[in-house]
Amino acid sequence: MPQLYERMREHVIEGLTFIKWLLYSCLIGVIVGLVAVAFHEGINWASQTRGGHPWVIFLLPLGGMAIVLLYRVCGMEKDRGTNLVLVAVRDAERLKLRTAPLIFLSTIITHLVGGSAGREGAALQLGASLSAYIGRKLRLDEKDGRTVVMCGMAAAFSALFGTPLTAAVFAMEVVTVGRMYYAAIVPCLASSLSAVLTAQRFGLHIEDGYPVSDAIELDPATIFQVAALGLLCAGLSVVFCKAMHTAPKLYGKYLPNPLVRAAVGGGLVLALTLLAGAQTYNGAGDGVIRQLLAGGTIPEAFLLKILFTALTLGAGFRGGEIVPVLFTGCAFGTWVGPMLGLPHGFSGALGMAAVFCGATNCPLTSVLLAYELFGGVGLPLYALCCGVSYMLSGYHGLYSEQKIIYSKFKPEWVDKKAE
Q1: Which residue has the higher pLDDT, 413 or 340?
Q2: Would residue 375 be called left, alpha or beta, if left means φ above 0 and alpha means ψ between -120 and 50 degrees?
Q3: pLDDT tens string 70-98
Q4: What pLDDT does residue 95 have?
Q5: 301-314 vs 258-276: helix axis angle to the nearest 10?
Q6: Which residues pair with 176 in a beta bridge?
Q7: pLDDT band for position 190 (50/70/90)?
Q8: CB 134 within 8 A of CB 108
């Protein structure tokens, strides 16, 4: 009888915990989803304003300085961005609520004046800081607080990008490579799904995704072609990560004053834009990705996007790295893929998934991203390309606080931070 009673008690506790997390995660999904919708509209307004008034690009130096001053006034000048979010999940470090309005406003400023940045990386900070605050108000303990932060990450990513499965798995996979936080799977899925449903209620992501009409099925020849593209994408992801880490170090070495750094960085991006003759590499570049997948080719685009993004974010502008990563992979894939004998659009899609995988060290997320963005045709080839890129990209990564627990080549413990 005592054992039976104890088992029944455990089942009741588990059931109550399940219900608790469904309620908490759906609440977080709706709240973060609403804020993400406002963020999405703000980014769209900024992009459309710059598109209608191209002269706004000349405000790049002032925009960078404004962002630096905004963070300084709020006492967040040394904010570590997405890296702090990863630490909050792994080590329960406190996230400040002020992070949310700061990243909200500063990312809109970046897009308004033409800095090269995305929005999904910024969304991770937005969702994590909001959910951490909600967790404190709910008086959750340290362990539950970590799960709440992952819920916020998943909700914001899902609401902005329209990929709920990708968002949920990314929140669990990105923090510590080789060790998934499976206890958070239901909370992350519930918050991710409720967030994307909230976004859809406001007209977002009704017909999202990228059209790839020339995807091919698995056959012996394509295995080698796709593996070769994955190898090249691994090298490109290392170049991207190196550029993102090197740029702020060089700025800091030669321009120690943050205001001067932001002004000079803005000036460099402005000069490059004028040399390019168009604003192809300013903003996130979603429109260019669609043009490339539809048949366009710009051989130098992947290198220029890396340069623009490194100069922008390294100077102190705020925003995300994920869409620039996808842009880089798409431009590279549509150029190199046909040389390997692969269809043009399919090569661009493979490049997007594989470079994202090499840069984030998240293979499961990358396969789900390919599925949700491009559909199920050719999914085994996406998985192969991502797997090769993951294995051969070494221990590099976008986020320096990301921990890689297991070796990519042997079943052994390495426990090191991404380079």
Answers
A1: 340
A2: left
A3: 999 888 877 777 887 878 787 777 888 88
A4: 80
A5: 160
A6: 403
A7: very high
A8: no
DSSP 278: S
pLDDT in tens, 263-322: 999 999 999 999 998 898 998 888 899 999 988 888 899 999 999 999 999 999 998 889
Is the CB of residue 32 less than 8 Å from the CB of residue 127? Answer: yes
Q: Are 127 and 66 in contact (CB under 8 A)?
A: no
Mean pLDDT along residues 203-230: 84
The answer on pLDDT for 13 being more than 80 is: no
SS3 99: helix
Interatomic CA distance for residues 352 and 386, integer angstroms:
10
The pLDDT, as a whole number, for residue 36 is 92
CB 194 within 8 Å of CB 29 = yes
- Alpha-carbon distance 314 to 249, whole Å? 8
Q: Which residue has the tokens 């550029």?
A: 243
Nearest-10 crossing angle of helices 301-314, 220-254: 30
Measured distance CA(153)–CA(173) in Å, rounded: 12
Phi-psi region of 92 (alpha: psi -120 to 50; beta: other; left: phi over 0): left
What DSSP designation does 137 have? Answer: H
Which of the four pLDDT bands, split at 50, 70 and 90, describes residue 224?
very high
Name the pLDDT band for 390 (thresholds 50, 70, 90). Answer: very high
Closest Cα to residue 88, out of 33, 123, 134, 125?
Answer: 125
CB of 401 closer than 8 Å to CB of 242: no
Asked whether the beta carbons of 368 and 163 are under 8 A apart, the reply is yes
Q: Answer whether 191's CB lies under 8 Å from 28's CB.
A: yes
Concatenated DSSP letters of 225-266? HHHHHHHHHHHHHHHHHHHHHHHHHHHHHH--SHHHHHHHHH
> Mean pLDDT in the chain?
89
**Which pair of tokens denotes residue 103?**
């990243």
Chain position carrying tokens 């977080």: 28
More confident residue, 54 or 12: 54
CB 110 within 8 A of CB 63: yes
Q: Are strands 176-177 and 403-406 parallel, antiparallel or unpaired?
A: parallel
CA distances from residue 251 to 121, 244, 248, 334 in whole angstroms, order as listed: 21, 12, 5, 32
* Helix then strand then coil, % of the chain, to nearest 5: 70, 5, 25
What average pLDDT does range 377-401 have in this prediction? Answer: 92
Sequence-ordered strand ranges (E) for 72-208: 176-177
